[in-house]
Amino acid sequence: MCFKNLPIDFDESGKARLREGVANPYAIDGENAKAYTKRIQRPIAGGSVATEGKVRDWMIDPITRVAGALAVHVGLDVEKRVAVEAHSMAMLFRGYEIILQGRDPRDAIDISSRACGVCGGVHSAVSSQLLDMAFGVKPPPMGVAVRNLGAGAEMMYDHPIHLGLLAGPDYSTALVSVTNPEIVKKAETTPAPHAHVHGYKTVKDIMDAMNPLTGAIYLEAIEFTRIAREMCNFMFGKYPHPSTLVPGGVTTTLSTTSFNEYYSRLIKFFDYSKRLAGWWDDVLDFFLECNPDYALVGARPNNLIQTGIWDDPWAYDPVYEKVPEWGNLRWSKPGVIRDGELVTTDLHQINAGCEEFVTHSFYDEWTDGENAKYATDPAGNAISPYHYWNKSTTPRPEGRNFKERYSWSVAPRWDRTVMETGVYGRMWTTAAAQNTKPNDFIEATGDGLKLLMPKFELPEMELEWKIPTQINAFERNRGRAYGVAFTAAITMNMLLEAFQLWRNGETKASTTFSVPKGEIVAVGFTEAGRGYLTHHMTMDKGRIVNYQISTPSTWNAAPRDPFGNPGAYEEAIIGTPLLEKNADDDLKGIDVLRTIRSFDPCMPCTTHLDTGRGVIVREVNSCSCTLD
Amino acid sequence: MLVAGVGNPWLRDLDFGPQFVRRIQAEEWPRDVAIEDASYAAHRVLHLLQDLRPQRVVFVSGFPRGDPPGTLRRYPVDQDALPDDDEIAERLGEAAGGVIDFDHTLIVARHFKALPHDTVVIEVEAEDTAFGTGFSDPVEASVGRVLELVKEEVAR
Q1: Backbone angles phi, psi at A4, to 5 degrees
Q2: Which of B90, B94, B103 to mutate to test the interface with A (most CBs of A within 10 A)?
Q3: Closest listed residue to residue A412, CA positions, set A556, A245, A597
């Protein structure tokens, strides 16, 4: 029983059914809803209520060092030095869901990819999986293997960019000298516990190396994005918008060289992973030692949702009824973590519990909560009128205030519970599920992961990541640092699978297909660098009727839902203490900014360009698209 | 030498650079001339420049600056004035987040000393920047002259 809020039970065959006798089970203003409409319960550092008359409004627009356009409003209690209110605002509408309506579904692979210039590959990948299902075409194992390797490389491009260029500078000498000079002073004489791995003698040496533009760690991150991007190109043709992902597999021209060149670059990540984990452990643990209240920065309930990634090449079979079976065989497991416990790894249950709400978003409502075109998924599980398959996207940029509507992001929820998602989330579900295939590189222990990084220039090393007791800004960044090792370990396994297929002569990587003309409902499940990613589609007469994209940052950057629950960023900001030493009239807000950046926001994916109703301060093109 | 098209795909005249270099690939060029599309984020263009190590670069683009449509401009890139490190870091952060901006490319490439001193821009005045493919008539009419200018740069 994984649902607490939605009145869903499971019948003898395991199908999700609405509980009998419950009137209007999905109504957002019914009796049911009162049970899950709650305020933040977490204690606020220094007290439980805001100080009367001492709350200052702070608008950060734009948030820098995030992908895309995000603004955040924060209410700061300057006497208690804590954030007491927050609103997360996605500032741009992109409209991909509308662009795709009426188009040939094959266009979705290329068009959806242009949603993002950082993680465009995963959109192509999940779209190709969705079309596998829609067209009833099963890729050969080598097609799945190549998709896996491209996705692995994409993660190894994505995480260093964030750790090195976006989040890392917040912990650098350059920035911390301005906000907490006492920490920099102490770092000068604090030995780095992992100096034998990364070579930096003191914690300050690491913080110096994180300095933007000049620090060695910062510069090395740029270099490793190049290596990972080359790996993507061997599998996907080009990156960030792959040219070889198709329904039924990939069209990449493969050779032994493709895999050898890929491998020659992967092995560089083994040592990089060892050093990355060492840097971040040393810096984060040092900060916590300086002030244990850093554990409150960005803290929110341990509720996470993941869709899983990296399929078993022999087990993947894109028939909706078989999804839970091969979903559980993924190297990185799907799952929902609620209050720190893994409550399901079944993709049907994960899908059935998902809803999107637009009460505080710039979109029209499309349902009264009672009537829906699709009452069940293709396997017979009950789904909500607010589910993606029943949703339609109609922008309405009106009512621009925090009581009404304030974001271009919708509010996804699972079982009407606020969830976050991330690389640390898929490590969490994988660790807790404890059903990883036997292999030499990764072991799920139940409370963490053991990751064996082979010898390269550094000796072989086992890294161990532990599931955090409390998710917060520091644990998100730590998880992401270990996430590179997690990805490298899995990618090594997947490369061995590809070598095996190649040696056995199973080199065919794609299957022919035709575009069906009937009414079809389909979905693709995968993960982006930042977590959960799904594309849902309905089509008829060979054309897309409805296409819905739900990205990790949609979940994380979500505004409030109709039940008054703040989204993940908002929850994480509320209660974050201001630990910088600057006076009230000179606050930099570094702790709030660390909170936001710890999620690795990707706003191009989240929003779907204001065409004139709003004020465009600066026009940007936030995708790396070409016509190739 | 590198001849690089820069622009915004699917925005008609703003897409001049990438489409132009695609068209001229079939021309005869000396062996030491690379023709590339550089319409992507600054740090990726940086990697391209670090790989090729060109001694000279010609950027080709279309952009509206208030001149009559189809007007051609040629100007050297100012290699002297760079913004401060904070701004450069911010621009690189934006690029890492997926923003494509030619100014980001020029500044980041110059900061890392990847852009040779001899770098020029050949630019055509854009008229139609709406969503779509194909150029406006004045910009289409300028293609031949732009090719002549590029060849003059190559021969220089």
Answers
A1: -110, -35
A2: B94
A3: A556
The residue of chain B nearest to residue A66, with distances taken between CA atoms, is B97
What element of type H or E holds A87?
strand A82-90
Q: How far apart are CA A7 and CA A289, in angstroms?
A: 45
**A chain contacts of residue B97, beta-carbon cutoff 8 Å:** 65-68, 118, 166, 602, 622
Buried b (16+ CB within 10 A) or exposed e, A474-494: bbbbbbbbbbbbbbbbbbbbb
DSSP secondary structure letters along A478-518: HHHHHHHHHHHHHHHHHHHHHHHHHHTT----B-------S
Task: Decide if A269 contacts A152 (C-beta within 8 A).
Answer: no
Chain B environment of A64 (Cβ under 8 Å): 90, 93-94
Whole-number mean pLDDT of chain A? 90
Where does residue A571 rank: exposed (0-12), middle (13-18), buried (19+ CB within 10 A)? Answer: buried
Across residues A237-249, what is the average pLDDT?
Answer: 91
* Digit-coded pLDDT (tens) for A459-517: 999 999 999 999 999 999 999 999 999 999 999 999 999 999 999 999 999 999 999 99
Q: Is A497:A145 a contact under the CB 8 Å cutoff?
A: yes
- Assess A225–B contact: CB distance below 8 Å, yes or no: yes
- pTM for the full model? 0.91
Q: For residue A612, what pLDDT band results from cuts at 50, 70 and 90? A: very low
Binned at pLDDT 50, 70 and 90, residue A400 comes out as: confident
Instruction: Using an 8 Å CB-CB cutoff, list chain A residues near B43.
Output: 222, 225
For residue A363, the SS3 value is strand
* pLDDT over threshold 70, residue A408: yes
- Tell me what pLDDT residue A606 has: 55
Name all domains of chain A by residue range, CATH numbers in brackets. 53-606 (1.10.645.10)
Contact across the interface for A620 and B100, Cβ inside 8 Å? yes
Pairing of strands A341-344, A16-18: unpaired
C-alpha span between A339 and A346 (Å, rounded)? 18
Contact B43 A166 (CB under 8 A): no
Give A611's pLDDT tier (boundaries 50, 70, 90). very low
CA gap A28, A32 in Å, rounded: 8
Interface confidence, given as ipTM, is: 0.83
Out of A64, A118, A226, the one facing B98 most closely (by C-beta) is A118
Segment B91-127, tens digit of pLDDT: 998 888 878 888 899 999 999 999 999 999 999 999 9
Nearest to B97 among A67, A213, A240 (CB): A67
For CA atoms B100, B106, B108, B114, the dihedral sign is positive
Of the candidates A300, A428, A412, A411, the one whose C-alpha atom is nearest the C-alpha of residue A360 is A411
A66 touches chain B (CB under 8 A): yes
With 70 as the cut, is the pLDDT of residue A357 above it?
A: yes
Asked if residues A565 and A86 have their Cβ atoms less than 8 Å apart, the reply is no
Q: Residue A66: what residue type?
A: V
Element (H, E) at B155: helix B137-155
Let me know if domain B2-155 sits in CATH 3.10.450.50: no
Per-residue pLDDT, A240: 80
**What are the structure tokens assigned to A210, written together?**
């994180």
pLDDT (tens digit, 9 = 90+) per residue, A302-320? 999 999 999 999 999 999 9
Are B99 and A214 in contact (CB < 8 Å)? no
Q: Residue A72 belongs to what H/E stretch?
A: strand A70-77
